[in-house]
């Protein structure tokens, strides 16, 4: 199974370039961060999915799950994550949109596995609190699971350590930086699996590498997943 994890920057950059990237990756499931929101949210997300040749099936906050026609997502769970509306850092005050995570079960070989996507916040303590809520949701599926998302933190941070303490395997350890797409210099997007699963991060097809800086401010992660 091929799974594409991608922060699409609210579908606000070059949509044609983004569609070319996704179609070239040809995922069975696409786990989206920063899906379009505000007015006409569902209409926009369905239109975005259609431009990729995929189907929009579930979402929470700014995360969404898209699937190919041959894939059935069952038992979808979507939960809001508590996050303070006002964030303070040094002398700066900013607002934050609500957080969330979404996932569901798919059939992989002869087994069911859960695929979950999240987008953690910008405050270091808030991210740790959010991750605990995400992990509780992952465990609630009662199956092996893949967890992907924009963690907004580099691998030397406490969120990554907590994922390791949970026993999850970092499939993207050798995948290189994921942000920014125009000047990749830090890895803030994660791909983690429970020990029952294995896989690897695949290279993005060469014919669309030039589209990556146009499509989004993040680089995608294309995952080959198997038992």
Describe the protein in words.
This protein is α+β, with helices and mostly antiparallel strands. The chain has a single domain, classed as Endonuclease/exonuclease/phosphatase (Deoxyribonuclease I, Chain A). The protein has 5 helices and 14 strands. The chain has helices at 15-25, 41-52, 124-140, 158-165, 212-215, and strands at 2-7, 29-33, 55-60, 63-67, 74-81, 86-89, 92-95, 99-108, 111-119, 145-150, 169-170, 189-193, 198-202, 221-226. It has a 6-stranded mixed beta sheet, with helices on one face. A 6-stranded mixed beta sheet has the order 5-8-9-10-12-11, covered by helices on one side. It is globular and about 45 Å long. The model has no long low-confidence stretch (mean pLDDT 93). GO terms for molecular function: endonuclease activity; exonuclease activity. Keywords: Endonuclease, Exonuclease, Hydrolase, Nuclease. It comes from Kribbella albertanoniae.
């Amino acid at each position: 199974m091929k799974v594409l994890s991608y922060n699409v920057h609210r579908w606000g950059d070059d949509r044609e370039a983004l569609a070319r990237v996704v179609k070239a990756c040809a995922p069975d499931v696409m786990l989206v961060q920063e899906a379009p929101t505000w007015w006409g949210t569902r209409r926009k997300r369905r239109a975005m999915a259609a431009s990729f040749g995929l189907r929009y099936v579930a979402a929470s906050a700014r995360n969404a799950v898209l699937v190919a026609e041959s894939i059935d997502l069952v038992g979808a769970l979507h939960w809001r994550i508590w996050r303070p509306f006002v964030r303070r850092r040094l002398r700066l005050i900013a607002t934050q949109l609500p957080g969330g995570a979404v996932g569901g079960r798919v059939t992989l070989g002869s087994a069911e596995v859960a695929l979950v996507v999240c987008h953690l916040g910008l405050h270091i303590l808030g991210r740790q609190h959010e991750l605990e809520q995400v992990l509780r949701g992952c465990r609630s599926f009662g199956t092996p699971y893949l967890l992907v998302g924009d963690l907004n933190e580099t691998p030397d941070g406490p969120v990554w350590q907590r994922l390791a303490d949970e026993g999850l395997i970092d499939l993207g350890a050798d995948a290189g930086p994921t942000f920014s797409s125009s000047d990749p210099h830090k890895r803030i997007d994660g791909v983690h699996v429970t020990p029952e699963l294995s896989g690897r991060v695949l290279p993005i097809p060469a014919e669309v590498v030039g589209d990556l800086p146009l499509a989004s401010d993040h680089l995608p992660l294309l995952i080959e997943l198997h038992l």
